[in-house]
């Protein structure tokens, strides 16, 4: 009997982790642009939580897409969220950005409350766009 590989969540691209972010959040959109600019290997794909793929991934992992208060990083059938997702994203960008992943030495019980406070207050702290951020034509092939 052959082992069946785990099924990729709907909308993902095998071999490319997917970052699901809030395209209305000024901070989140800036981070998405940062990833697209500095991901020289073109390893990551992005999906907004407002879109079909992003909302579907949130639902797949039991997160309400209307009020997620977290970024997620989907790799195959696993998901990272909160500060773990952010640190994994920066680690995946390579040097010098991967140095930020050293913050993983700080216990999650200290990192995640700070992350969640920022996530809950992201519109108040950084602003909210009136329309979703849209990628350039060149970036569009990496946005789901």
Describe the 3D structure.
Strands 2-1-3-4 form a 4-stranded mixed β-sheet, with helices on both faces. Strand 3 (72-75) and strand 4 (78-81) form a beta hairpin. 29% of the residues are buried. With 144 residues, the chain is of the alpha+beta class. The chain has helices spanning 26-38, 52-60, 82-92, 108-120, 122-126, and strands spanning 18-21, 45-48, 72-75, 78-81.
What's this, in brief?
The chain is of the alpha+beta class and 144 residues long. The chain is built from 5 helices and 4 strands; from the N terminus they run βαβαββααα.
Keywords summarizing the entry:
144 residues; alpha+beta; four-stranded mixed beta sheet; 35% helix; 11% strand
State the shape. globular
Number of helices: 5
Reading the helices and strands in chain order gives EHEHEEHHH
Helix content: 25-40%
Mean pLDDT equals: 88
Largest sheet: 4 strands, mixed
Distance between the termini: 35 Å
Specify the structural class.
alpha+beta
How much strand? 5-15%
Oligomeric nature of the chains: single chain
| Rg | 15 Å
Strand order of the largest sheet: 2-1-3-4
The total count of strands amounts to: 4
Unreliable segments of 5+ consecutive residues: none
């Amino acid at each position: 009997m052959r082992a069946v590989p785990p099924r990729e969540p709907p909308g993902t691209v095998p071999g490319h982790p997917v970052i699901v972010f809030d395209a209305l959040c000024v901070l989140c959109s800036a981070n998405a642009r940062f990833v697209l600019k500095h991901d020289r290997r073109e390893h990551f794909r992005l999906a907004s939580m407002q879109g079909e793929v992003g909302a579907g991934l949130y639902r797949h992992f039991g997160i309400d897409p209307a009020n997620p208060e977290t970024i997620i990083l989907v790799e195959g059938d696993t998901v990272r969220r909160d500060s773990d997702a952010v640190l994994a994203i920066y680690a995946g960008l390579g040097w010098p950005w991967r140095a930020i992943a050293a913050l993983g030495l700080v216990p999650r019980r200290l990192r995640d409350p700070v992350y969640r406070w920022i996530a809950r207050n992201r519109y108040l702290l950084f602003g909210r766009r009136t329309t979703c951020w849209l990628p350039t034509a060149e970036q569009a092939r990496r946005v789901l």
